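pipeline/complex-builder :: batch 7 item 3
reading input block
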Amino acid sequence: MRWLKDPILDVQHLTMRFGGLVAINDLSFMAGRGDITALIGPNGAGKTTVFNCITGFYKPTEGMIALRKPDGSHMLLERLPGFSINWKAKVARTFQNIRLFSGMTVLENLLVAQHNSLMIASGFTFLGVLGIGGYRKAEREAIERATYWLEKIDLIDRADDPAGDLPYGAQRRLEIARAMCTDPLLLCLDEPAAGLNPRESLLLNELLLSIRKDHGTSILLIEHDMSVVMEISDHVVVLDYGTKISDGTPSEIRNDPRVIAAYLGVADEEIEQVEAEIGA
Amino acid sequence: MEIFVQQLINGLTLGSIYGLIAIGYTMVFGIIGMVNFAHGDVFMLSAFIALIFFLILTTWLGMSSIVLALVIVMVIAMVLTSLWGWAIERVAYRPLRGSFRLAPLISAIGVSIFLSNFVQVAQGARNKPTPPMMRDVIVLFQGESGYNVVLSYKQIVIMATTAVLLAIFWYLVQKTSLGRAQRACEQDRKMAALLGIDVDRTISLTFVIGAALAAVAGTMYLLYYGVVSFNDGFVPGVKAFTAAVLGGIGSLPGAVLGGLIIGLIETFWSAYFSIEYKDVAAFSILAIVLIFMPSGILGRPEVEKV
């Protein structure tokens, strides 16, 4: 239970209601610093809603989402305005349906993610246009960082192509690289393996492991592909109907009858047996 | 032939002014999907700012170099009009951003009426002239009928200024981080915010840039016609909006192209047919183009954002 000792993300009593529909009900969990934490659950369990609350798309009805920085201070994400969640709290995310800037080039997608540092270096553009200040140096560094990521995701040859022209798997990798260009402490990935073939899925695992190893970024991911979840995650949180039904290491989760029941459903004659097992 | 060349020159001059205004419409539409109906009046306001400072510089301070005075006037007009553009967005549009789609549109019409009435009250309802300036012309060639085809210094200044500013502006949008952020906000505002881009500030800067280009257009308009009145924002504003739609709203090269086309249609129609119906001609062409190309000449078809 090392995630309880040094959590990067501390979600407490999170509730999200849409009118009468309760999408998340009193959810509390922690994600450890440097861990890969997986958020799993059947369709409609509220996983993406949790992500939307963390990244400021929704204002939670109740509850607290705290991001703990390495220096011990914390920021309450539900109180920050949209762009500060990335800029100040250092949380980045990707989407289930890819949201690249498809009309911009691959390189530009990575440079946009470094907008704030470039804006500061260029004196909000005005000094930069006049050639004053460290804009050139900052721009060079931004391109170097983008190049590093393009090499890492194996897209360096396509840097000047429109992002929308890339094949699906490459777009997924680019979206992760773009999120990493914002230099996040916590990277939230919404189904990064969806639609990938087994080979691409394997590459993705390597990429995620190397992000954690080389950059120390903590990862929170939603995933349906159990091979990805079981292979790389340190900690799994299982949701069903907006509540947490299980929380533990992958091997603990694998054998939890509540999880099996939630995923596979239970035959009528087994209900009593399952109830006995879970002690209900 | 002589008339053709002469009208080509006149049309391009007029078209560059329309193009500069049209960029303001098209940029704002691109980033927040709203037609800023007050933009024409921002243009009119900038022409008044230019007029006032031009008179201060030349008659009060006795500056003798017209060119230097014009440069100073243009910079002042750009700065002050930018402040107006920023303030209008802050006061009239930003509070309504989460509201229903028509709310900012109605607010824009309100700002438009406010600006023209404000100028009417502050500056009077009569046409305000500048002292005559830059009246020299270059005779390009003389036609058989004895008709001189001329290119005036004013026209050279207007076309050159427009070209230079468009080049700077193009660099700004394509090569700088601000331009990238703007294009990103155009495509997906929420995603841009998730990458740490302050979307509100980017939108403000879009209004500032649009207003600065309108100020250049206002100064050029004043230089070209030598007269401005409080209701001069309306017709050039509508024509520039037409230009933006014709070129494909949301497309920057489209706005300039649309401006040039509208300017050319207007001058050629005035020369060969009847000057009374020049506006009818411009708008008819717009209607015809939109029937066959609903997204304008260079516009992209609307893509549903998921």
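note: Residues 2-233 of chain B form one domain.
queue -> next item
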